[in-house]
TrEMBL record:
GO BP terms in the entry: protein N-linked glycosylation via asparagine
Subcellular location: Endoplasmic reticulum membrane
UniProt similarity note: Belongs to the DDOST 48 kDa subunit family.
Keyword annotations: Endoplasmic reticulum, Signal
Record flagged with keyword Signal: yes
Record protein name field: Dolichyl-diphosphooligosaccharide--protein glycosyltransferase subunit WBP1
Assembly behavior: Component of the oligosaccharyltransferase (OST) complex.
Organism: Hortaea werneckii
Amino acid sequence: MELRILAALLFGAFISCVTAISAQGSRLLVVLEDEAEKSKYGQFWLDLEERGFQLTYRTPKDPSLFLFQHGVPAYSHLLILPPGKSTKGLGPNLTPNLVADFLNAGSNVMLALSGEQSVPSAVGSLVAELDVSLSPDRNSMVVDHFNYDTKSAKESHDVLVLSGNDVSSKKSGVADFFSVDGLLAFPHAVGAALGNASPLLSSIIKAPATAYPYNPKEEAEGVEDVFATGEQLSLVTAFQARNSARF
């Protein structure tokens, strides 16, 4: 169930980032921790291929992974799936500077994170370039003791449940890619705090008012010095560069 929910969220987020085959082309590079994980998102890949995307799969350590060829982007889009538990970074060919250059060259980037794995410091450095801050505790995930799935997260409260009406877009002319009839589940979400300086940065879906980041590995009964709470936490964030590329 969780994988189906995650795949649906990925599809909605990716299509909201790229509503059609961009002017740069249809080439999509998918970076995943292990080739074996590809089967977990089978329907997601089929949906993208039906929309005309040409998918290439690479792992972070694959020597054939590169974003540029002859000085120009080798792909039109980059999708980075959640890093593995043992991942310390994204490798020499996915440094924050290279990904930023890829975005500045007009290509689109989508990054998916999961609270089940520690967030590599390289990922924190990457999103910081866009004025997005992740919790200093790289093992934290967003929990909510009032808005959670009572079946899959009866004790952990780490599968958030939001009303479809709460996540629908209220802006005129903006498509409601996340609007659903009923409820929408967010398993093991990683929350981000957004800077206020950039008009190019916006939160697509915010956490409920009673949500906060928590490290399940800690045994402390209370939480002190909370990174951000409630609607200060963005669950899905979008950045549109001045060249119309999107992250």
